Fold this protein.
Amino acid sequence: MIVLGIETSCDETAASVVGPEGVLSDIVHTQQIHSEYGGVVPELAGRAHADKIVSTVNAALSEAGIDKPDAIAATAGPGLIGAVLVGLCFGKSLAAGWGVPFIGVNHLEGHLLSATLEPDGPEFPFLSLVVSGGHTSLYLARAVGEYEVLGETVDDAAGEAFDKVARMLSLGYPGGPEVDRLAATGNPKAVKLPRPRPKVRAPKTPSGHVGTRPLDMSFSGLKTAVRAHLQTENPVAPADLCASFQQAVVDVLTDRILRAADQTGVGRVTMAGGVAANSQLRLALQALNLDVSLPPRHRCTDNAAMIAHAGRSRLLLGERHGLDRAARAQWTPGVV
Ligand code: KG4
Ligand code: ZN
């Protein structure tokens, strides 16, 4: 089955064709318009997707050498609703016009299953850390569609913390890649920063869990500690601060992965989402005494190959969605 995937949940307009042999095309257009605002402006994102969606999908089809796929998979959430709607409605319209099956895909499930798109990807069950600008969650994946949230951030996402620290240092948006680059020349022990643990009585987490689990995370205190350091009389050089901050994030994430492996007895581990492109985090995971397989960096940040792949995995199990499938701003992967 050859599937066209469409992704427009945030600031990437992306389309990809995936078949039994793997990825046939993978087109990602990153919107530049947001950099001057220091973050994604939802209204502008939706408009820019509308401008680019036709040319992006056409490019994906022509690079794959096909006129029409066997099915269409489009991100239906979670994400900026006006942005999600562009790709979702476009995907549904193509499915209706071509008379092919349609499936709405959970963007986080796309990240979660990313590593299984690779020839040497993990077999089920595996642990998958989805760590991006909007989400930081650790899942136990038992099968396609069967995911358990083992822990998640109770406040900022890790990528959000990277972006906020980059902003404090005037490094531009998105800040993660720039912090990563600067940190490579800095001393991770230059500043003593906390590895915060969520308070015992946490508010409701994004997936609706009430109370704190041992594998939950918190990043807002770390970001505040960086700000406090910058307000001292003699702050360290930006590279040292970036390295120290990055090390704190890496320590928290690797700690939760080790605990999760211990708790579940599952030693196969992967991760995805923009922060999974981070050099130090990738090295730290690969150094763990676990069976770690990581998607390549360009499949960690938002792309449509992961959407085509997640959609295809469900389509092959017989799942189809009606053309009344709604867009969702919040959606825990695995929930129907
Ligand atoms: O998955 P993604 O492309 O979009 C979302 O679904 O959020 O993730 C974007 C996030 C941003 O916060 C960006 O700063 C961060 O991923 N990011 C990184 C790196 N590359 C992207 N963070 C740390 N190191 C990187 N190399
Ligand atoms: Zn994402």
Q: What stands out?
A: Residues 107, 111, 132, 273, 302 surround zinc ion (ligand 2) (CB under 6 Å). The longest strand covers residues 22-30.
